[in-house]
Every structure is written in structure tokens, then in C-alpha cells.
Amino acid sequence: MVGDGKGDPEIGVNAKEFLSFREVSKYYGVGSSRLHAVDGVSFSAQEGEFISILGPSGCGKSTMMMLASGLIPVSSGEIHIADRIVDRPYTDLGIVFQNDLLLDWRRVLSNVLIQAEFRDWKVRQFEPRARELLARVGLKGFEHKYPHELSGGMRQRVSLCRALIHDPKLLLMDEPFGALDALTRDQLNLDLQRIWLENQKTVLFVTHSIPEAAFLADRVFVMAPRPTRILEVINIDLPRPRALGIRESPEFATYVRRILDIFYSMGLFAS
Amino acid sequence: MSRLLGDQRMSAVLVRTPGFSCIGALIIRYGYPFGLAVMAILLWESSVHILQVPEYLLPAPHIVALSLLGNWSVIWVNVWPTLAEILAGYFLSIIIGVPLAIAIVYSRLAERTLYPPMVASQAIPKIAIAPLFIVWMGYGIMPKMWIAFLIAFFPIVIDTVVGLRSIHPELLLLGRSMGAGSLRVFIRLRLPNALPNLFGGLKVAVTFAVVGAITGEFVGSEKGLGYLLTSASGNMDTALVFAILVVISVIAMVLFVLVEVLERLVIPWHASIRLRGTGGQ
Fold first, then answer.
1. CA pair distance B35, B44, nearest whole angstrom
2. ipTM of the complex
3. Which residues of chain A does B193 touch, with a Cβ-Cβ cutoff of 8 Å?
4. Going by C-beta distance under 8 Å and a sequence separation of 6 or more, which residues neighbour residue A168?
5. pTM of the entire predicted model
6. What is the tens place of the pLDDT at every residue in A34-70?
7. CB contact under 8 A, A101 and B174
């Protein structure tokens, strides 16, 4: 299998392994309607590493993300986070979905603080940090707006703040910018990179955009269609912080080409 | 936490009313429906006169108005028992309907066992079972209250179930990833999310409760607007029948508006309130 073993290497000597998948498979349902979503995925991510999971729509990328969070159980194999096996929801994480999932009846600040509220933490203590996070993504002055008063890009920024307010070790992002227009998406890619550089968390970033995956990630996992498995791991050795212009560079073009070639060899995009 | 709650209450109180800044908007808001009503009454009045319709068949509006004024004291006395029946049946349908909806959403067993009898209860004409209720519960408020309940609880249950189910599945995952238990997920996520639908049900139900109470009074009662209606039609006093119908519709409209005001106070954030009259633009 191409995927086996290929995800494991290239961990630096000093790097700490934070998250690892060991031969993880996932089936949904039983009998004839059984759906094989994830097929023997193994990899490990270092602490503070940014990993893009890139694959065609509906291939099972989102399932991988949910498995990592412990919100849905694995069918076989094991997932470890910080040397502990994930057998129940792992809560020291933030999740951003494609849908911002803001609560319409709460103001922006209150939407961000829901993390603290739901964890029975002192909401007041988190308020300064919430304000600071919102300011960092350009939403100063919007704290008391309702979600419906915000644009799609602003809403997704609030959602990102909600995922970061409790300073989690792991950030799971499931096509977070997929519903946004191209310009907003670029801006949010820059925002995300900046925030990640300031406070390096381990990120699993699911996307089906090749440039987005390569632009953001330390490593890109190229996934096969369902049942998904890692086809290849591509290291993106580009200096940070990366400017949008880097996407025009020959190095970047080479990465994109390599990823495209993998998809071509899988029979995708066949005309 | 208390601060957050405070914020929400604040937001609930600060209802934003769409800006009717100019008189033109006021005319559109109130003038058009009023004008339509006046035109309908004029048309009615003139056609009754032109076509020489006998009063016991269709009294002219001014006859109805005179009857309403002349019989006001007897109508007024009979408004209260009916209103009590309506409100009792309505509150009963909320108190029973909402928990029923929650049970149906959370338990497969409850869904399978409760849905069939619920649907069956709606298929039976209320007027047909009203005599049974009278036999069982006598002539007091009880049979009317239960008939009103029987009609009104159904839209509440159906709409609340739809509302509770319409939550984004990923929002539930998100709630669990924050370590929230199912009670908190219910109170903080599912229930507020269901409120717009719940209010839809409450608005339909309040008019149904009026129908239920009047139906109960038709079958057996010693007071109330339904009782007055039967006796007026027995006396061929068609003008009084119309006058009572006017009163009943006014009661239904006032109750409906009250629920709508409550809705505006509770869910000012919802699109159905914010975008009213704009065609959803």
C-alpha cells in the first residue's frame, strides 16, 4: 500500500509526536448497505504541524477528521493523541466546519464564549481573550453584532475565534473556507497562517483545493477516493510566512503539478 | 454565564421594528387592510339593499352593528366563559404538546407509539366526539377545554418536532466536542433552534383553540359565545349570529396578535421577524 508507512517518516529529531493514526479504518452501517469510508490510514503528526488533507469530494476526509476528534469511533485501528488512545470525544480541540454554525440568537462575542460556557469555565475570564482574538481577525467593533449582520467571511472568522478561544492543542478544519468567494478565501488563508504562526497548534485541514492545501501546509496528504487512504505525502518546503504571490512561484507550481499527477494516475479528471 | 444570559435578555427586549419612517409606509401597513374591509362592508351593505335580501338570510352590516350594540351586555357576559375555555385548552396543549414533541424527538419508542394515536385523534371529527366529552365531563369548562386541546396540541407537536429535528448535525458534534452534556445541548442549542418553528405552531394552535372551544359549546353548554350562537340561530336572529361571529373573530385575532408580539420579543434574531414584508430579500 502506498499509504502505509509513507505518512510516518520525516519527523525531525526534536519534534514531538502529537497525533497518530495507526491502521485506522471506518465502516458505516452493516450488511449490504455497509459503507467503507476510511481504509487503513496511518500517519503521525508532530506537535504544531500543519497538515492538509486533500482529496476529491466525498472521499472520506471529513470522516477522518471526526475520527481524530473521537466524536465517532474507529471501526479498527487506533488513534493516539498526546500518547493517549482516543476512545471518547477528545475535547482539547477546536473544530471549524464549512458551515460556520454560529448561533443566530447570540451576539458575536457570546458565540465565541460559548466554548467557555459549555465547558463550565468562568466566561468572564475568557472575555478579554475573545475580544483580542476577534480584533486579530479584524472584527474589532463587531463584538455585539448578531451573526446575520455579518458577511460569510466574517462569520467564518468568528467561527475560527470560537475554535481558538480555549487555546486548544489541536485544530480540526473541515473545508472551512469552501463556501467563500475566492478573494475572501485568500484573505482567510493569510489570517489562518498568521494565527497559526503566532501560536503553533497541530492543524488538520481538510480541503479539495490543491493550491489552498499546498499554500497552508507543512505536509499535504493526498487522499484516494472512497474508501479513502493516503496515496502520498508531499512535504511543502516553502519559507514562512508565505505571501499569496508564492502561488505564482515555480516551486509552488511543481508541488501543484506533483499533486495533480497523483490524481491523474488515480484516473481522476479523465475526460 | 449570568452576563451572557443578560445579553440575551437585552437582545430579546430590544426588538427592532422595521423603520416605517414615512406616512406612505403607515398607509400600506394599516390603510390597505382597513380600506379593503371598508370596501367589503360597503359592497355587502349595498348588495343587500339592491337585491332586497331578507334580514333572516343576510342582514346588512349596519343591522349587525346595531345588534352588536343592542345585545352587548349579554354578549359581554358570554365572552368570559369562552375565553377561559380557549386559554385553558391552549395552555394545556402547550404543556402537553411540547413535552410530547421532545419525547418523540429523543425516543424512537415514543415516536412509534405516540404518532399513530396522535394522527388518529386528528382524523376523528371533533364535533363527533364532543357529545362523548359532555357525557363524561358534564356541562362545565372541562369538555370544552379538552376539545380545544385536542385540536390545538397537534400543530404544536408537529412544529416543535420539526424545529427540534432541524438542528444542524454538525452543531451537535460541535457541542459534544465542547464537552457539553445532552441536557445542555438541548437547552442551549436544540431548544432555541426550535423556537421559530414552535412559534409557528403556537400561532396556528391559538386559532384552533378558539374553534375547539366554540365546537364544545355547540354540543352542550349553558353559557359562552357558542351557546349564544346556537340560541340566536334557533331564534332565527341572524343579525345576532353575525354579531357573535364578529366577536369570535376579534377574540381570535387579538390572541393571534398577542402570540405574535411574544414571538417578536423572544426571537427578534430570526429571519421570519427581521425580513418581514421584504419577500425575504
1. 14
2. 0.85
3. 103
4. A92, A93, A94, A201
5. 0.81
6. 888 888 899 999 999 999 999 887 778 888 999 999 9
7. yes
